[in-house]
Write a structure and sequence with these properties.
500 residues; alpha+beta; Nucleotidyltransferase, domain 5; 7-stranded mixed beta sheet; 6-stranded mixed beta sheet; 17 helices; binds adenosine-5'-diphosphate; binds SN-glycerol-3-phosphate
């Protein structure tokens, strides 16, 4: 009987489900958006029940579209928006509050205090992270502090904390303690909590104490590729093993088959997430990157550097919705192509400050170098170039941290469809930019991890054969021109820093 994999990709704005066959080909996709809540400036929440119902409905719909029976699914792979925090009551299965989303800044002041505390140095060494409201730890502490009775209930073992992977596994296995629901997470998701020691692979007692988190709320940490649990048969129509779990950026690194040290992927979505495989030992960053996990397959952990850029494809949305110089995002390419170069115009899209490697929360956007001859086409070109310059700044930091030679950059995400941007990216980096045939790296990664977990595929080398190139963009710009352009970018960047 033919075997299939079901990938559940629970993202920030939508829940997606994909069915793959045992050749790793995608045969069905279903997607559903869900509600974003912004209760106060800087706060972002999701309804955990809506996350579950949307995820379940797309899973069923993808199975229907694939025209397969649930019993033909060999395994489920879960991949998810990372850091988003849910706390629920084990007995009733009810969340005690909305999920606090990774973008939520409500715990920024707690992080300021934590940065000055005696745990700060240990935190960075153990978790590889910088202290920031982005991660789950302070969000969990906020829930325990602000939901009435939560801390006592947590101490008494009545509450469960989880990232979205944990919540989905809980729901897939029955949704209450009585029904036998499991409380598990994987190595990659645990690594984004700010409570987990990525070297020992265990929850860190000192950090739990610093954030006053009772150990009783924490899930058990498992690898990213093994049978973690079996779904309750009544939910999807068959009991199916969940055999792959990873945060979405880690899954994308795997889906891009960046399985050797020095291999890098960049996802060009709203922002950019760049991850580089650094091998079986974690390396500290001295260039303002995160030192994080790649995945754990069986007993073998692998590590990565990560750099996030806050505004990438979003600058194209701004050209469309803010400036109104294009109608659709894809129009940016034709507009930018009307001019042979940027004409000395630089756009720094620091709309929300600057992420890696600059980390300037007070930077703001700017357009520099305007002359009377500047047109909308120059601005469009400068916007696309800015995505490439920011990427080059992160890759430089990675190269210097990793001391590894970069052979190429593997790309995915909506803006990686833009040929002009990808060619310019290759030119600026001086390394080939490689775009795969299948763009769904995140879902592929989750399905690959799950397939490995149940033996549909035997090892990484079998998977690497499935990964195919759509197009390679070779660098062709003169080194002197690259130098001049990057100098112009850095000059504009300086003007944008420390503005607000
Ligand atoms: N042809 C294009 N050129 C540049 N940017 C694009 C193009 N098409 C889409 N985008 C941008 O890509 C982003 C959407 O990519 P996607 O991977 O779906 O992002 P996300 O997962 O963050 O929602 C949007 O910000 C959009 O403006
Ligand atoms: O859901 P995405 O694709 O926006 O990814 C969210 C990241 O995992 C946040 O760290």
């Amino acid at each position: 009987m033919s075997q299939f994999l079901l990938a559940l990709d629970q993202g920030t704005t939508s829940s997606r489900a994909l069915v793959l066959n045992s050749d790793g080909e995608i045969i069905a996709v279903a997607q559903k958006e869900f509600t974003q809540f912004f209760p106060k400036p800087g706060w972002v929440e999701h309804d955990p029940e809506e996350i579950w119902t949307s995820q379940l409905s797309v899973a069923k719909s993808a199975i229907r579209k694939a025209k397969i029976k649930p019993g033909q699914i060999a395994a489920i792979g879960i991949t998810n928006q990372r850091e988003t925090t849910v706390v629920w009551n084990r007995r009733t299965g009810q969340p005690i509050h909305n999920a606090i989303v990774w973008q939520d800044r409500r715990t920024a002041a707690t992080c300021d205090r934590l940065r000055k505390s005696k745990s700060a140095e240990h935190l960075t060494a153990a978790t590889g992270l910088v202290i920031d409201a982005y991660f789950s730890g302070t969000k969990l502490a906020w829930l325990l502090d602000n939901v009435s009775g939560a801390r006592e209930a947590a101490k008494a073992g009545e509450l469960a904390f989880g990232t979205i992977d944990t919540w989905l596994m809980w729901k897939l296995t029955g949704g209450t303690a009585e029904a036998g629901a499991v409380h598990l997470t994987d190595f990659t998701n645990a690594s984004r909590t700010m409570l987990f020691d990525i070297h020992t692979g265990e929850w860190d007692g000192q950090l739990l104490k610093a954030l006053k988190v009772p150990a009783a709320v924490l899930p058990e940490v498992r690898s990213s590729s093994e049978v973690l649990c079996e779904t309750k048969a009544s939910i999807l129509g068959a009991s199916i093993p969940v055999a792959g779990v990873a945060g979405d950026q880690h899954a994308a690194l795997f889906g891009q088959m960046c399985t050797e040290p020095g291999m890098v992927k960049n996802t060009y979505g709203t922002g950019c997430f760049m991850l580089m495989n650094t091998g079986k030992k974690s390396k500290p960053s001295t260039n303002n990157l995160l030192s994080t996990t790649a995945w754990k397959i069986g007993a073998q952990a692998e590590y990565a550097f990560e750099g996030s850029i806050f505004v990438a494809g979003a600058v194209v949305q701004w050209l469309r919705d803010g400036l109104g110089i294009i109608k659709r995002s894809s129009d940016v390419e034709a507009l930018a192509a009307q001019v042979p170069d940027n004409g000395g115009v630089y756009l720094v899209p620091a709309f929300a400050g600057l992420g890696a490697p600059h980390w300037d929360a007070y930077a703001r956007g700017s357009i520099a170098g305007l002359t009377r001859g500047a047109t909308g086409a120059h601005i469009a070109r400068a916007a696309l170039e800015a995505i490439a310059y920011q990427t080059a700044d992160v890759l430089d930091a990675m190269k210097s941290d990793a001391k590894l030679k970069i052979k190429s950059l593997r790309v995915d995400g909506g803006a990686a469809m833009n040929d002009l941007l990808m060619q310019f990216q290759a030119d600026i980096l001086g390394v080939p930019v490689v775009r795969p045939k299948v763009f769904e790296s995140t879902a592929l990664g989750a399905a690959y991890l799950a397939g490995l977990g149940v033996g549909v595929w035997k090892d990484k080398s079998e998977l690497a054969e499935k990964w195919q190139i759509d197009r390679t963009f070779e660098p062709s710009m003169k080194a002197s021109q690259v130098k001049e352009l990057r100098a112009g970018w850095h000059k504009a960047l300086e003007r944008s820093k420390n503005w607000a």
